[in-house]
């Protein structure tokens, strides 16, 4: 039986100080009887939830009524085509989830044990796992403090004769500065993969995230800007990548005869039901992005007035879609990140910590023992994200901001 890699705080040493504490218990807010004309706030404000306000039910009903519910059906092709168009690419390959999309895109390279893929240490673990699934080694790069993304100035020093690809991550919806990455890739003959799981609708110098490298991968998990519940997509302009990804996605069935396989393929297919939801969601992408950006602008306006709160970045060359609205807490705030999370949870407000870097993860710690990435570590220690769904109301936003102010005031008064 598979045994977990347990990691003690003694082994972590001073890195233990950045690891988040246990998850706070979320408590429903008991609303008093509202005064006349005052709308009560909802008992719990989740960190994120889907917005199903378009043709989702209509399309799913049609798929059920026509018996096209598995991985065949017209909604798959329609979703792939529309999503690829929105992302500015020729091809879209729908699949089971975002991690699968990463694995599928990297699998087209034929990675072998000993090959290396450069990734940021500050990311969700799927970015590293997809490399590991193929027997290759993730090589880590620190973040830069301006955008919280991979520090592109550190990438070239990590390139070796075994490097095959660079995977960038558009963190929390802010695109990476891609021009220097693509220049490096061209110089060294490397494949560039965008992990755009969090960046539906983001723009880099006017171009959509998802069209900025050789291929890109998106997630449609329930908390993403576009969701299918579970699901993913590979986008690319490269016909060779798209055709191989389509083939590998479906057990690598041969075109000349059934049950004839030239590759080790995967069952990574998306269902027509999921694609029906995805199509309806993609039809609303621009509206969802504008809702997120409007909510982020309001949060920033209010939170910038609170000492010790750093609001999320947006470079002048970028359109951040604020998949999650993240903040950093400094000493002037008066509470640690974990203390604020617990206080907000008692008020029915759900939050999440920032990512724990890969070099601190129990399963990868031995591989990177002794490596330090100070910016990523600082982001992990101080960062959390607030409720960020597209459909948040002004009352929701005010409730979150007021609660943050109250938590700080109570701490300072104690």
SSE layout and pairings?
Elements: H1 9-12, H2 56-65, H3 74-87, E1 91-95, H4 98-107, E2 116-120, H5 126-133, E3 137-141, E4 163-169, H6 178-188, E5 191-195, E6 203-204, E7 207-208, E8 215-219, E9 232-236, H7 239-249, H8 272-282, H9 285-303, E10 309-310, E11 318-319, E12 325-329, H10 337-346, E13 352-353, H11 374-382, E14 383-386, H12 394-413
Parallel strand pairs: 2-3, 2-4, 4-5, 5-8
Antiparallel strand pairs: 1-9, 6-7, 6-11, 8-9, 10-12, 12-14, 13-14
Describe what you observe in this structure.
Helix content is 33%, strand content 14%. The strands form 3 sheets. It has a 7-stranded mixed sheet, sandwiched between helices. Strands 10-12-14-13 form a 4-stranded antiparallel sheet. A 3-stranded antiparallel sheet has the order 7-6-11, with no helix packed on it.
List keywords for this structure.
2 domains; single chain; 33% helix; 4-stranded antiparallel beta sheet; Aspartate Aminotransferase, domain 1; Aspartate Aminotransferase, domain 2; 12 helices; 7-stranded mixed beta sheet
